[in-house]
Design goal:
about 160 residues, mainly alpha, 6 helices
Length: about 160
Amino acid sequence: MSPTEKNTAQKSDIKTKFIVFWPYYLLQSALASIAFLIIVFLIGDSSKMVVISSMGATSFIVFALPKAYSAQTRNVIGGHFVGMLCGALFYLFIPAPYWLEYPLVVGIAIFLMVALDFEHPPAVGTALAVVINEINLQIFAIIIVSTIVLSQVRFYVRKYLKNLI
């Protein structure tokens, strides 16, 4: 197959997929937006939004790939908990220059998530957000509540969701 034929076939596949799945695209994107809106209202403080930046990526996994292993409640909550713990430990106990601290927190968060079987890639962003900003009970609550909201919305509507990728 020539590159031109391959490109035409890909465009045809994308068009066919869109025609078949567009109601799911709309539904699942709307659900992600609603779940995130709930999180934003629960936080109420725009200065804390950077802490939940990784929740945007979690929203994608939970609502675009709801059947994926990393979208399971255990991995979403556990992964973010591990990321938060790694970020907190570095923030509180390991004084290092940022150019060393950030790569180390990423590597250790990945190691612990894989070792503990809590694989959720966006949770590495939580580790970075915590080490860059700060950790306190409010941040802890924001992260945990955010993961619970996303996981619960997915759980209650799971029979209507499909993997979109």
